[in-house]
Amino acid sequence: MRKQNSTFKTAFISEAGSELENNDYFAFVELEKYACYVVADGLNELPDAKSARLATQTILLAFEENPSMGKRAILSYLEAANKALSTAGSREKLKASVVVVVTDYAKARYGYAGNTRLSLYRGGTVREQTRDMSLGNEAGKSGNLPEDALSRHEQRNNLHTYLGQGKGFHPYISKKQKLVNGDIFVLYTRGIWENLDTGELDDVFSEAGEEPGQCLDNVEDLLLSRQPGKLENYTCAAVFINKVFLDPNRKRRIKKIVMISIAVLVSAVLVSLTVWLLYRQRKNRMDEMERRYCNTIEYIQDGNFLRAGEECEEALALAEKLRDKKWIREISDYQKLVETVNAADEAYSGKEYENAGNAYRAALERSRYADRIADEYIDRQLKNITDYLSVFDYIQLGDMLAGRGDYERAEEKYLQAKSLAARVYFEEGRKEAINSLEAMYAAREKQEENDTRKAKEKASDEVGAAQLASEGDKAFAQGDYEGAKAYYAMALEKYQELGDSAHGELVQTKIASSSEKADANKQKEQEAEAYLEAGRQQALEGNPLEAQKQYLFAKKLYKELKNDEKVLEIDSLIQVLEISAAIEQEKTEKESREEETAAEEESLTEQETPSVLSGPGGETGPGGLAAMESFGPGI
After folding, report:
1. I want to staple 469 with a disulfide (CB 3.0 to 4.6 A). Which of 287, 491, 514, 633 is the partner?
2. 376 Cα distance to chain centroid
3. pLDDT at 13 over 80
4. What does the alpha-carbon distance between residue 548 and residue 561 come to, in Å, rounded to a whole number?
């Protein structure tokens, strides 16, 4: 119904001009829904090339197979013509310029390649006009040349796009043009535009009526009146659109399109809203997860692992909802670290320092997978545990020394424990060290009171200073040089009170000798301790002989120091070494005897013995063997 309810009048002129053959071609097809108009200008020098005809026929055949106004469809028509010309079997490569117009009787779209031109007139003025795809047109644009000068430019026929080009073919396809009554499409070849100004053509079609033939006659008269020396093939086709098709269902179709568009729009809005809400929800979850994750890191850096655990648990739950494997893996590593540190902190708070140390070391291993974020905290806690244990070790060592009456060294250890506890803010250890010091001071004060009382009793004795000196001599003889010095000092005091300078000088000499002996004993004690430690190290390394030698050196020194406790301790260590050596020797001898017995049994099995010789009492022994030897070779 489109074609019947519209009026499109078409006319054309096409002549060879001064050439022998007309290599231009115009043809059109008007179908029920679409119409196609094609003008082609052959660019070959041979008169029988027929490139324009082949191009036009190819385009119209492609159009009839798939009539459409689509941009891709018109491009496919032109590409089909380009392929047909570039693959045609001919003495000369076929080339042509072309312009094609496709309309549905209400709108139109055109495409072209080369320098065949098209003009659309509406209301007496030019509405659309093509531009040549030539080097001359590009030079004209860059040089701002007038349109009429291009018809004489020497590069006007040097085309960069044309049919038959093969690869690199890029035609121009216009947008859709809405047609109105009175529109005129004019399609013409270079034989027209090289000889007539665009203004002259505009004048012809601006005063056109409803019949295209009269306008074309006027164009031809103008062309021939110029009497050009060489007139190329010329073709000019005019399509007068006297009546445009009006769709009776247009309003209904528009309403339907509007309704469908509204439904699509509503659906799109709903889908977009849903997608946006889902996106917003995911983004909120992502933001919340990242916030929780950052809180976890901040709490870890602050050492607050309880709050870090709560934040990390929330972040992990959000990551699982987001199904983000990367975040799940990363946050899980942080959660494992936090859980391990919390377990260590619990043991640390419960004063289970050894268990806490093991847990912190495990947490340090976990920290490798969490950017080493908790290393500083864990190292600090491990150092605290080491210091706490050192405080208890100092106190325990002080207790041992105080128990032996060595209050001076015990005081030194207690003070070390107190100082270390204060430095690491270990209040419990500091209080325990202070309590131990007070107990030690009380014990020492009591001991000192006892010593003073005994000294006074001795001083009040009949022998007085002599008895004290005698006691000093005894202590010196027993190797108690410190005690000897004490007695000598008391004796010296008495002698000084008595004014006995001779005995005083003698006692002073003894005091000096006691000091020398005490210093020598301290050096021996250090040497003995070194030998004892060396023996223990050799025993651990599996060198019992070397260990025993070191123990004997230490024992000799302790005997000289008359330290029976250490002598007994070393004897116990030597005895342990001897027992171990005896066990090892017995084991070796047993294995050797078993090997010899096995060898003898194997040897006896292999030999055939005619008789068994027995010694006295029927037993085989040394006597039996001697008897066998006495018989000699004759047996």
Report:
1. 491
2. 23
3. yes
4. 20
Q: Contact, 531 vs 551, CB < 8 A?
A: yes
Distance between CA atoms of residues 24 and 42, nearest Å: 6
Mean pLDDT of 409-426: 83
What are the backbone angles phi and psi of residue 427, rounded to the nearest 5°? -65, -40
Q: How far apart are CA 34 and CA 105, in angstroms?
A: 7
Q: How far apart are CA 477 and CA 546, in angstroms?
A: 34
The whole-number pLDDT of residue 591 equals 82
The 3-state DSSP class for residue 563 equals: coil
Residue linked to tokens 């549905």? 104
Using only the alpha carbons of the chain, give its radius of gyration.
62
The predicted structure's pLDDT at residue 209: 81
The pTM of the whole model exceeds 0.90 = no
Six-digit token pair at 10? Answer: 């078409």
Tokens standing for 186? 């004019």
Cβ pair 38, 59 in contact under 8 A:
yes
Range 570-575 average pLDDT: 86
pLDDT at 463: 59
Beta-carbon contacts of 25 under 8 Å, excluding residues fewer than 6 positions away, are 14, 38, 39, 40, 42, 52, 53, 55, 56, 235
For residue 458, give Cα distances in angstroms to 462, 476, 504: 8, 18, 18
Tell me if 361 sits within 8 A of 382, measured CB to CB. yes
Phi, psi for 153 (deg, rounded to 5) = -70, 140
